[in-house]
Amino acid sequence: SEVAVRVCSEAVQIFGGYGYSKEYDVERYYRDARVGTIYEGTSEAQRIVISRALAGKLL
Predict the structure, then answer these.
(1) 23 catalytic per annotation
(2) Number of domains in the chain
(3) Alpha-carbon torsion 23, 3, 9, 35, what sign?
């Protein structure tokens, strides 16, 4: 989700003011990426979940 936010943020910068306009898909992509970071939990929490899942598979 962090990468998606970075990529979408860069796309919004490239589009300039149009990047915030609902007429362009970039606005929706950026909005969805930002919501994904909130909805999915913090990045640190996701890292913990993933590491526990991987550790469980190794045992």
Answers:
(1) no
(2) 1
(3) positive
Main-chain phi, psi angles of 41, to 5 degrees: 95, 175
Note the pTM of the prediction, 2 decimals.
0.64
SS (H, E, C) the chain: CHHHHHHHHHHHHHHHHHHHCCCCHHHHHHHHHHHHHHHCCCHHHHHHHHHHHHHHHHC
Q: Where in the sequence is the domain holding 15, given as residue range(s)?
A: 2-58
Query: For the domain that residue 41 is a member of, what is the CATH number?
Result: 1.20.140.10
Average pLDDT of the segment spanning 7-32 = 94
Q: How many CA atoms lie within 13 A of 20 on its CB side?
A: 3
Catalytic residue among 10, 23, 40, 44: 40
